[in-house]
TrEMBL record:
This is NmrA-like domain-containing protein. Residues 2-123 form the NmrA-like domain. It comes from the Eukaryota. SUPFAM superfamilies: NAD(P)-binding Rossmann-fold domains. Signal peptide: none annotated. Transmembrane segments: none annotated.
Amino acid sequence: MDKKNLVAEYAKTKGFKAAINVGAGWYLENHFVPEVAGLLGGLPSTQDVDDYLTLTVPNWGGDETIPFNSITDDHSDIVHGVLLDPEAYNGKDIQGVRNLATPEQLVRAVEKATGKKSRFVEIKDWTTTIDNLWKPRD
């Protein structure tokens, strides 16, 4: 993330008509890559030993909402909108977001869509490892 910001800041110094940093929020697709979903507790693809689809992440802070964005379905539309009038956005940082949802809201949506028991388990201590929190079902 720091390197992306460095590139964006560098671009602002180069005399372009417009230099805009369009961020992507939290990729919704993260939850559909099994290896990444496993790092996040298994939701929505792998049930744990208690037969739950579990999301295991720290809370985000603030109002606890996650800024979801689908790279596949949303991001190009956001960038396109910015490019329609780039001078209006010159020098700005734009966070591309489709939907704000708390971890609990995400879990409820997955439960409704799949019909499978789902839950959110907050990581309260960042030094806790996922191996101590989540064990996949055999």
